[in-house]
Amino acid sequence: MPKCQICSYIAVLQGWLLLLVFSACSPTHREMRTLQMSPILQFSGRHAAGHATTAPLADICVDRKGNFFTLLQDTGRVTCFDSQGREICSFALFAEKPESRSGIEAVSLAVGEGEVYVVDSRHSSIQVWTPEGRYLRSVQLSFPLGPGDTTVTGTGEVFYNSEGFPDSSLVIEFDARGKVSHRIGFSPQEKAFIPRTHSLKQAIARRRIPLFLRKSVLLATGPDRRLYVLYRTRPVLQCFAGNRLVFQRQLNFPELADIEEAILVRNRVLQVPNAYIPFSYWSDIKVDEKGRIYILLALQTHQTVYCLDANGRVLAKLIGIYGKGHLLAVRDSKLTIANAASGEVAVYALPF
């Protein structure tokens, strides 16, 4: 073989070796950062006169001034706190309309420019308030809401996961007038599955997730009107722009196997017929103004959040204080986690 040809082969081989070395050292292969966080603020997210209530918090959000807003599930009571956790005001629809005292199921909360939006799934409606607690109006949604996750934006649009409904859409979007404006994603129509010989609890304990729960998702909205869909029973994250799927990511977090086992064990030992712990790897998902995605894990001893970039790639794992976390809010480089059962709120300064 001519010497020049041998030299060319060697040069090509050296090039491939260099490429492999640089690929192994590239940022995509760096280990994910795990960061410990300590709260800069802790306070009770319940109305000062209602600490005795056992009703869970349904949602939490932060406005552009740094004020915190919490929502009680059973009454739809909204309580506003300043940036130091001091209560400013608290308001609920039954205070304005006593006939509405019972029967509310508040599920989602958002604060926009001069307006606060509360979604009541039982009456399929949106209550609109001023941040100071003055009732403005109620908007009736043109499609009934069921058990699926619901999120409302700061301009009054509502996104609803059609879990449990015979609808081929995964998510239904309502405009600020309550009219259906878009149908997003596709999910085959499935009937609720109840095993004949076993209870629903036993079926889930055997990892037989009923069909009607397999399209159960958590929803979050982000910049540029993107919608993020996080499947509860499988580690899949989707991002939609309109009805176009922008990306789909498999989330291979190391905690997921333990979460699954914990849920299955608890469902095996439950004694109440047809009672079960809903299967979900996650507690909540939120997106900040830069498009970064925050996912709060379920059933952790410490509040644990994964931060992803706008394309769904993991940036960091954030570990907070000991205790449970159910609700997330993120704004202006601050991460807020609430325990829905106790009402306790922890605020963290993001370390990046």
Model description:
By secondary structure, the chain is mostly beta strands. It has a single domain, classed as 6 Propeller (Neuraminidase), CATH 2.120.10.30. The chain is built from 4 helices and 25 strands. It has helices at 3-24, 93-96, 200-205, 256-269, and strands at residues 33-36, 41-44, 57-62, 68-72, 78-81, 87-91, 106-111, 116-120, 125-129, 135-140, 150-152, 158-161, 171-174, 180-184, 217-221, 226-231, 236-241, 244-250, 282-287, 293-297, 302-308, 314-322, 327-331, 334-338, 344-349. The strands form 6 sheets. It has a 5-stranded mixed β-sheet with strand order 1-22-21-20-19, with no helix packed on it. A hairpin with a 5-residue loop joins strand 24 and strand 25 (344-349). The longest helix has 22 residues, at 3-24. Mean pLDDT is 84; it is low at 3-30.
